[in-house]
Amino acid sequence: MIEQSITIELETGLQARPAAQFVQQANRFSSHIFIEKDKKRVNAKSIMGLMSLAVGHGEEITLIADGTDEEHAVNQLADFVKE
């Protein structure tokens, strides 16, 4: 299992379109992927879970991945929210 704390740099945060794109990216990986914010953990492959966190610009989240491609998954998804 691998974890990485990151700050959301997307101007709109992970709302609407960026959230949907993030979920699409997460679904490319076979690893189990989660996002944690304020001690609430959700499945990063679930749009409803991600939207329930209401992640805004400048907020910190923790990406957690567990599986065969966990490192690649965390790196790719971290890059996505830093763009």
UniProtKB/TrEMBL annotation:
Native source species: Halobacillus amylolyticus
InterPro entries linked to this entry: HPr (IPR050399), HPr-like (IPR000032), HPr-like_sf (IPR035895)
Lineage: Bacteria, Bacillati, Bacillota, Bacilli, Bacillales
HPr domain segment(s): 1-83
Protein name: HPr family phosphocarrier protein
CDD domains, per the entry: PTS-HPr_like (cd00367)
